[in-house]
Design brief:
The chain has helices spanning about 30-35, 90-100; strands at about 5, 15-20, 40, 45-50, 50-55, 60, 70-75, 80-85, 85-90, 100. It is mostly beta strands. The protein has one domain. The strands form three sheets. The protein has a five-stranded antiparallel β-sheet with strand order 9-8-2-1-10, covered by helices on one side. The longest helix is centred in the C-terminal third of the chain and has 7 residues, at about 90-100.
Length: about 110
């Protein structure tokens, strides 16, 4: 399940509320499988995405249409974020500086 975060301060360059996905550590959320090319779905519903390694040790996830890159991770530890109808990546330290994780009972509240 994707984690939900809210900005801890106010930085207009970033969305107020985001969902996050950590590749290879969390199940793939629907908003990722909608935009990335799905390579395989097993009998349990586990999804494998089409990706390639780049020359600097990061990963490039391929879009569902064509061969374009829709997610470009500079490092394998980068976190994929979705907020305000846009996709971006953050390093774990950036996420911790900009956002605080919302507890389940606080989701949807402003």
């Amino acid at each position: 399940m994707a984690k939900i975060y809210k900005q801890s301060g106010h930085n207009p360059a970033y969305p107020e509320i985001i969902e996050t996905w950590t590749p290879f550590e969390q199940p793939i959320p629907e908003w990722i499988s909608d935009i990335c090319k799905v390579k395989f779905i097993d009998g349990l519903g586990n999804i494998t995405l089409d990706y390639r390694e780049n020359n600097i040790g990061g990963l490039e996830f391929i879009g569902s249409v064509g061969n374009n890159v829709v997610i470009d991770l500079k490092r394998r530890t980068d976190i994929v974020c979705w907020g305000d109808n846009r996709l971006f990546t953050l390093r774990p330290v950036q996420l911790n500086l900009l956002y605080k994780q919302l507890k389940k009972e606080n989701r949807g509240k402003k």
